[in-house]
Amino acid sequence: MKKLLFFCCTLLLLAACAQKEDNTTKGKEVKEDNKMNEQLVGKWEGNIKTPNGALPIIVDLQKDSGTLSVPAQGLSNYPFKSIKYDGDQVSVSINLNGSAVVINGILKDGQIAATFQQNGGKFPLVLKPFKEQPVTYETSKIPVKDGALTVALQKASKEPSPVALIIAGSGPTDKDGNSAIAGKNDSLKMIAEGLAKDGITTVRYDKRGLGDNQSLLTKEEDITIDQYVDDAVQVINTLLADKAYSSVHIIGHSEGSLIGLLAAQKTKVESFVSIAGSGRPADEILLEQLKGQLSPELLKESTDALASLKKGELVKNVSPDLQSLFRSSVQPYMISWLKYNPANELAKVNSRVLILQGTTDLQVVTTDAEALKKGKPDAKLVYMDGMNHVLKNAPADRTKNAATYSDPSLPLHKELLPAIQQFIMNGGRD
Predict the structure, then answer these.
(1) Which residues of 322-335 are buried (b: 16+ CB within 10 A; e: fewer)?
(2) DSSP bridge pairs for 49
(3) Burial letters for 89-126: b for 16+ Cβ neighbours within 10 Å, e otherwise?
(4) CA geometry: angle 402, 2, 390, nearest 5 deg
(5) Which residues pair with residue 368 across a beta bridge?
(6) Do 137 and 192 meet the contact criterion of CB atoms below 8 Å apart?
(7) How do the residues of the chain divide into helix, strand and coil, expressed in percent and rounded to 5?
(8) How far apart are CA 352 and CA 70, in angstroms?
């Protein structure tokens, strides 16, 4: 069966709630059968090539210890159980909350060609020397339910300035627009940095249970889309009370569009920008994506499951092939999500609205943009020719389009930042 596409694929390869530990490991084992190649020692980064996409990891190899980090999952400096060197070869084992992980690699031409093994799965991995990314933002904490939300503040050079809250899309998508499923593309990071240069401060954050805010969620079944909305509202109200900002705006990408427009209903923001936002109920889009990917039997099961969830009823029996989409722990979130029709909800937003839609988006199509426009006739709708779902210039070909999801070297579509900047700064006037 082809992999289920994008929207609800929040199944993570590693243990999503793994606890941070000290870099020292009890009972660690280190072996050097032959003289080790000293060039192996250091910090390395790469993408595990899983069936669901590329998963970025960071491996810190030391002579007698080491750690694993998976930024998209909030896993930081998790210690190795053992490490073994043999000339140009290195072998690492990790006990990740009871799950056995093994990384075997060999140094060649300045890279480590490796395999990543976990729970019977074996995935290719190429590790390259780690390049520290400069931090261009400040962090602060905003009180929310169960604690404080860590946010990234990308400041414009002058105060007071407009400020925009950027809300990321579905699943394990972090504040930079990167995902444990789709890969690293830095789309939201680029928006934040670009708008700061244009005089607009931005705030973005990892959703609860992810990255900087992993501790705010311990059980997947506890999260709902309404909790995400409440978090956004708390951030917006904090910004509204800060005299450093002349106006407050929302930018929502993909599922962040729905979260953003629901938050806009509850706050006095000046404008709302929807980028690649769905205009139809989620069950319609999911079934549209699943057709052609599933057997008739699994498609019927998916249809029946979505119908039950839309009525607020949990689904008890789910086939193994559909666990990633309908596992019991994600069903409360889906129930909270399926009750909303984005176009109907957008009609309740009183602020100015800009709808941006790419013409080569594989996940959200022009039908959705038109539905949003119908729901809010006075909204401004702009199509970005050749822009895909991660806001890059991409062809319609599915394979070539998908390759951009894990390429942070590609710039944003050239028309995207000017459209957002003009809408915010000029009050929506052309």
Answers:
(1) bebbbbeebbbbbb
(2) 54
(3) bbbbbbebeeeebebbbbbeeeebebebbbeeeebebe
(4) 20
(5) none
(6) yes
(7) 30, 30, 40
(8) 38
Write down how long the chain is: 430
Query: Using an 8 Å Cβ cutoff, are 391 and 257 in contact?
Result: no
Please report where in the chains the tokens 């972090």 appear, as a residue: 174
H-run or E-run covering 107: strand 99-108
Q: Is 181 exposed, middle or buried (0-12, 13-18, 19+ CB in 10 A)?
A: buried
Sheet holding 82-86, edge to edge: 29-32, 82-86, 89-96, 99-108, 111-118, 121-129, 42-50, 53-61, 66-70, 75-79
User: Which three-class secondary structure state does DSSP give residue 394?
Assistant: coil
189 phi, psi to nearest 5 deg:
-60, -45
**Cis bond before residue 320 (omega within 30° of 0):** no
Pairing of strands 380-384, 352-358: parallel
Euclidean distance between CA atoms 76 and 67, whole angstroms: 8
Handedness of CA 32, 35, 41, 46 (dihedral sign): negative
Neighbours of 32 (CB within 10 A): 13
Q: Residue 267 corresponds to which tokens in the numbers above?
A: 């706050």
Coil, strand or helix at 110: coil
Interstrand relation of 352-358 and 271-275 (parallel, antiparallel or unpaired):
parallel
Q: What is the pTM of this model?
A: 0.82
Locus of tokens 């006095």: 268
3-state secondary structure 43-64: EEEEEEEECCEEEEEEEEECCC
Angstrom distance (rounded) from CA 167 to CA 97: 31
What pLDDT digit, counting tens, does each position of 94-153 carry? Answer: 998 778 999 999 999 999 999 999 888 899 999 999 988 788 999 999 999 999 999 999
Look at residues 7, 103, 18, 73 and name the one whose alpha carbon lies nearest to residue 325: 7
Q: How far apart are CA 285 and CA 303, in angstroms?
A: 12
- Nearest alpha-carbon partner for 173 in 279, 289, 275: 275
**Cross-strand bridge partners of residue 105:** 90, 114
pLDDT tens figures, 140-183: 999 999 999 999 999 999 989 999 999 999 888 999 999 877 77
Half-sphere CA count of 378, side-chain side, radius 13 A:
10
Phi, psi of 324 (to 5 degrees): -65, -30
Return d(Cα 264, Cα 153) in angstroms, integer: 20
